[in-house]
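A quick aside before the break. I want you to see a complete sequence-to-structure record at least once, exactly as it would be stored in a machine-readable document. Don't worry about memorizing anything.
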Amino acid sequence: MMSAGIFGMSGAALVLGLSAVGAAMGMGIAGAAAIGAAKRCFKANRPVPMLMLTFAGFPLTEVVYGFIITQQMLGTAVTADNAGELFGLGIGAGLAMALVGIAEGKAGAAACDSLSDTGKGVAFYVGILGIIETVALFAMVFTIMMNLG
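That is the input. The structure line, written in tokens, reads:
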């Protein structure tokens, strides 16, 4: 039988692990699109917009948020009463971060495609990615507030 401490603290590991998985998947999606968009630029003898690196890297922030939540959770004393809550918070926050990372990767891929073809719209693309990023920020803040409450 798993002790309350191990059960509760596994939530901290889950939030970091899940956020990293989602970030990696999102960066893989956007990175592949950036490479394809760069190829089209090379073939057309046009310069490659280096901002595509930013679009491909946007999902990386989810790992940072996951780490912040993990550190906060590790500082929480685990009792039999809150172990399930910590475990649930870890899964919920980790899944939120993972899904945001994947969504950002898809949006970043579209931004790379569009930027490489038109050379326009950078502020719009960053705005869209920022809107998606806001979900992760809310998830992080609300998770921390719930853990401290």
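Two observations worth writing down. The mean pLDDT is 94. The chain has five helices and no strands. We'll return to this after the break.
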